[in-house]
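Input (structure):
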């Protein structure tokens, strides 16, 4: 069954690449199309298309990077080429020269691809600070308020690298938060680029009076053990909550869950058995599922990531259909849910219709 799915996926991918490649050839071909031009063009298209598969399976750094950018171009071309194709067909019913309309459609398509690549790259590497003010009815708390800095889905690796980590530290420290929460996907499926770029040393410069805490996500994986990942992060001064509970200076409680794909993940009610609900309770859960269960268990604030807000339009339409809260703020009775679009990105370093962000949550305890 798995082999069949792989074959169907490759055939579908190959068919789409052929369609885009053919439309590109129709636009680029010289008046006297030589055999040499056809071979060269075909070689470039095949090389670009295969970089996605070869990079994913081989792990070669350069091919991985090329594959990521090809993924971005391929996605944009899938949206724009059919639109250009339909436009050219409709314009045949006008008096406009067929050759000219086809050429201009190609130029406009190419211009839009370049524009959206530049625009998407800017959105990915230029995070904004988004703020939410919430009130929690915990008058018994010995805190008047709590200033939280939240960042998820950093996906530190080849493209979300050292400079992006430095940007994260600078932006968060400038906000002077009381506590820093990182709910998952700190790595991009491989711990080695994180260590090679010494991102652990960069993250060690994060500081907050109540400390830095993180849970793990579905991309926080590698060929070794989970303990190796936990050790690498804790060497950065980040406290990992892996189905763990911690009372922070007796003032509030943090619960950090294993990711939803982890077969050993404990049910939330088991984790909540010994939690003192008279104190504020904050849940770090990478994937924003089961908000109703969190509300029933007495969670005051649940922070998540994972969705990237869709990352690239129309992905937001899909995440909006899947999750009760796919991005932003939602209140369920006494529980508050905050889902961030993430500081990093998955795959190509572009965001269209979303923006990389750090979230500031200002809590007032009533």
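Output (sequence):
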């Amino acid at each position: 069954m798995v082999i069949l799915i792989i074959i169907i996926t490759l055939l579908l991918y190959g068919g789409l690449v052929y369609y885009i490649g053919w439309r590109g050839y129709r636009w680029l071909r010289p008046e006297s199309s030589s055999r040499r031009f056809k071979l060269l063009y075909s070689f470039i298209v095949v090389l670009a298309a295969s970089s996605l598969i070869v990079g994913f399976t081989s792990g070669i750094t350069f091919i991985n990077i090329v594959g990521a950018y090809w993924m971005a171009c391929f996605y944009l071309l899938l949206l724009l080429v059919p639109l250009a194709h339909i436009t050219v067909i409709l314009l045949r019913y006008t008096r406009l020269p067929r050759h000219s309309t086809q050429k201009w459609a190609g130029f406009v398509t190419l211009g839009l691809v370049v524009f959206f690549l530049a625009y998407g790259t800017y959105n990915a590497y230029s995070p904004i600070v988004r703020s939410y003010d919430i009130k929690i009815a915990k008058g018994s708390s010995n805190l008047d308020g709590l200033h939280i800095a939240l960042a998820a889905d950093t996906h530190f690796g080849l493209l979300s690298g050292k400079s992006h980590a430095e940007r994260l530290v600078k932006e968060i420290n400038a906000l002077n938060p009381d506590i820093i929460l990182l709910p998952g996907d700190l790595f991009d499926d491989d711990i080695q680029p994180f260590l090679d770029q010494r991102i652990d040393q960069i993250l060690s410069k994060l500081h907050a009076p109540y400390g830095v805490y993180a849970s793990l996500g579905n991309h926080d994986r590698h060929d070794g053990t989970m303990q190796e990942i936990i050790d690498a992060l804790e060497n950065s001064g980040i406290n990992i909550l892996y189905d763990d509970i911690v009372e922070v200076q007796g003032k509030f409680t943090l619960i950090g869950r294993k990711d939803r794909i982890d077969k050993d993940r404990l049910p939330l009610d088991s984790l909540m058995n010994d939690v003192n609900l008279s104190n504020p309770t904050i849940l770090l859960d990478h994937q924003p599922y089961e908000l109703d269960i969190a509300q029933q268990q007495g969670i005051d604030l649940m922070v998540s990531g994972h969705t990237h807000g869709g990352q690239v339009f129309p992905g937001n339409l899909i995440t909006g259909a899947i999750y009760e809260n796919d991005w932003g703020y939602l209140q369920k009775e006494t529980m508050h849910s905050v889902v961030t679009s993430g500081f990093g990105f998955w795959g190509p370093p572009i965001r269209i219709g979303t923006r990389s962000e750090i979230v500031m949550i200002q809590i007032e305890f009533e």
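Notes: The mean pLDDT is 91. The domain at 129-365 is CATH 3.60.21.10 (Purple Acid Phosphatase; chain A, domain 2).
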